[in-house]
Specification:
The chain is mainly beta. Helix content is about 10%, strand content about 50%.
Length: about 270
Amino acid sequence: MAFLRVFLAAFGFVFWTAQTSLGAAPPLMPEAKLRLLDGGAGKDGAWLAGVEITLSGKAKTYWRMPGDSGLPPLFDWTGSENVKSVSVEWPRPERIPDASGTILGYHGQVIFPLFIEPSDPSKPIRLALKLDFGICEEVCVPLTSQASRLLGGGGDKAAIDVFRALVPKKGSLGAMPDPRLLSITRAADALLVKSGAPIDDLILEGPTGWYFGDAARSGGSDAEPVFAVRILEKPSKADLGGLALIITLLGRESATETAVTLDPDGAIR
């Protein structure tokens, strides 16, 4: 299924190119600009930075789990100097209608905050990125872009902090911060997820081979809503026992991300 999604994104580009050659109006090709941002030195020798993607028109790009179609961004830092590790944070995505269903991603502009651990804190950091990602407008295209920057000025912290505020907070079962994850139960071919605070949406991520549908309200109260998420695909002979999931609850003003493991009945272990 993952291969099919990538193939369909590429096929859309080939199809429109063929149509244009036969005299049809040329499609609006999406464009994206890539830039690295410098957020300055942080705690314990770590450095704050950011990956900024600016999109043309109504173009959209994808979250780490793209939804019904699309390509998640792949970050390659191998060209960097004096970099021991890079941690990428993911601002909360939108659920965007698409010809193939819905995608999870971003319009306009997104900044992915980075936390960089230098190999030697006494030496300068040169960050170099090769980014593979997909963008869509009237057609969908896979892109590879590169950017590099010598960190040191820290002048972009305010811009990065705007998107850091959109990164879901780490949650744990039944505990603050809100929106809290209260429970997961199984109902036929779906999982029922209960939140401890009002939410607009939720996203369920599983390991390779597991695919889940959009969340749909299925009961509960306004204060503790319940959403159903269908299991669309799973590996052959796989069951729910031991299944590791990430549940992202999208509240109106805040979001949380909780890692859980299910028991054979589909409840949280």
